[in-house]
Specification:
Elements (H helix, E strand, L loop, with lengths): L4 H16 L4 H16 L2
Helix pairs in contact: 1-2
């Protein structure tokens, strides 16, 4: 699977946020959906 720069950056940001503090399920779902949608645009 090839990640474009934006998706990879978004995912890195999300992981950093998740490691730093708890993230609400809604925010997690939104981030994952955005990440997947960005990848599918490739």
């Amino acid at each position: 699977m090839i990640y474009n720069a934006d998706a990879k950056h978004l995912y890195t940001e999300f992981v950093n946020e998740y490691e730093n503090r708890p993230v609400s399920p809604e925010l997690t779902l939104k981030a994952v959906e955005l990440f997947i949608n960005t990848i599918l645009k490739e």
